[in-house]
Design a protein that fits this description.
The two termini are 28 Å apart. Helix 10 (247-267) crosses helix 11 and helix 26 crosses helix 27 (611-617). This protein is α/β, with parallel strands linked by helices and 719 residues long. Helices cover 45% and strands 13% of the residues. The chain contains 31 helices and 20 strands. Strands 1, 2, 5, 6, 7, 8, 9, 10, 13 and 14 form a 10-stranded mixed sheet that branches. The protein has a 6-stranded parallel sheet with strand order 17-16-15-18-19-20, with helices on both faces. A two-stranded antiparallel sheet has the order 3-4.
Length: 719
Amino acid sequence: MFAGDHDIERAVAELEALLPEPLRPLARIAYNYHWSWTTDGASVFEEIDRERWTRVGHNPRRLLTEVHPSVLQRAAANAGFVNRITGLATALKADQLPLSGYGTIEPAHPVAFCCSEFGVHGSLPIYSGGLGVLAGDILKGASDLGLPMVGVGLMYRSGYFHQRVDVTGYQHEYWVDSDPERLPCVKVTSAQGRPVSVSIPISDEWVEAQIWRVDIGRVPLYLLDTDLPWNSPVGRWVTSRLYEGNRSIRLAQYAVLRMGGVRALKALGIVPTVYHFNEGHPALGVFELLNQIQSQAMPAAQTDSLFETQWQQVRRQFVFTTHTPVPAGNESYHRSEVLHMLGRIADLTGDRERFLSLGRLDPGQPEQPMSMTAIALRSSRQANGVSRRHGAVARAMWQPLFAGYAQDDVPITHVTNGVHIATWLHGPMRRLLDRHLGADWLQRADQSATWEPVRDIAPAELWAARCAARRQLVDLVVSRSVADRLRRGELLDYAAAVGTGFDAERLTIGFARRLATYKRLHLVALLPARAVALVGGDRPVQFIFAGKAHPDDTAAKEVVRQVFSLKSSADVAGRTAFLEDYDIPLAGQLVAGCDVWINVPRPPNEASGTSGMKSCLGGGLQVSVLDGWWAEAFDGSNGWAINGDVDADHAAQDQRDAHALFDILENQVVPMFHERDADGVPLRWVDMIKRSLMSNGPRFSATRMVREYAERVYLAGRS
């Protein structure tokens, strides 16, 4: 159906040849990440060799090629195990049935979803955080719905950085190279067996990129890779690191992502019905399509009128999602930077000044920098933010691009984010909901009626599932945190304290996300006396922190040091943990096990956020600022809220919100958690969990989100 099918088939056959006959269906399963959101998928691979599964980073291809043949033979002799493999193979086959199309979106003309990162699974290290995880969930949601889609991104050889924290709490970064030849992906080749590649003009070099394919259920993800021996060292480095600190390299990445991405789809014979830019990084793709349109036109003088006609023709093919109002997420570049790296791309338009002007807030001001977000907004027929409030913030922020429009009429709508439930709901809560919501409930997860049976779950049964999930998390925290502390050279007493201090029955509070300063992790440390009293009082709580700061964000790194400044207290040492190297696997365990999830961004900077949505699925309750998704989710009975008003006095706002946070924790959260009936069940707490599941489950699912994109964005405004 899509380019690279024959490469997938060849790779599957080669892997099958290494396996005993009863295990051969695992080869096809391993080459499609569908297994990662199938109930028994991960456990089947894990049971082959638990230690090896961990060592290979849950990469099924590596597991099957590295495990000892005798281990495979033992697994093949286990009839029950082979039956489970058959079940997985049957589920995968059912989800590979031909796509029927979605309105005018057809397999021959799919949506091309373009993003700088994709968080599909921990074994595919081409993501950094929320943007990538959301992109991965969109591909999975499209697969579940049968929406014809292809993903386009970059194959980062070193990916995003890994994190180590020293004894002061200061973050240090390191990178680990990955080898695509050992990942469950294939290099796309032509009918003649030669790798398909495209060339992109960057600076004074033609940089060549080959194309890898990764299968995400029904959706193929194509990843461009410039690490080829005939490229220059700089050219090879372009797709090395995600969010590379060097600004010139980032510009080159954007050229490869979108100009290269559009060229790659053409080389693969894929003609999208619409291109979806997920954030501004892919915006340069419009100029490649413009170039293609201009090259097909009859020779004629390039008048302003002709350019405008061609530009409108291009705009009909693009839609755009903006994900943040924060400046770091809306990069802009000075004229000299742009022309140094992208001058020859500018020349494709026939007018460098016109090229630069399309990225300025005011096209008539040549001294203004060129913004990727501005290009994306100007070149798209539809644009949206990622929550209701963010849509309003984006309209105000980008009004200067839309002369003559009142702020409320700026053509930026919103599609609130959602999460892929089958990926993020697992463990005891998954088993509980599977029992009560029906065998096919995930196919109906965006319908409120699907979640109604939650109301009738026995409180003791729901509470038992929550306690089991918390117990699993505490076991993980103890093992990881002791190891982290020993690795960074902490005193032995401090390293061991978490092993005796963390309690599987204690109220467990989580704060884990990208550590940008506006996320305000420092609020927890702003009132040190109250923080220490909360973890050391008569009804102590325990805190789990995790997250990464961008390597160049020194202010965000200092936030972690502020939290570490509390560790001298004996109670803090045993009842708080900072887990290093936050990633998708760790995120899944945290949102499944924490009783309370804290989110305290500085409003209105939280465009949406999705970690809290995932926490809701696991029965976690939210204490969040009324910003992003929580501003439309909170109903007074499904969690707790902190005022979301904007305040220009950040110091005063931080003090006020820190006091509000501790007031909620001390006066509402802790008492409710410990208010138990004769059987030890906190009935009011369980009622709030039920309300959270019933109100948030259907509204913030990837199924609902992808349907809205299809109906309100992809199929709208095409005339």
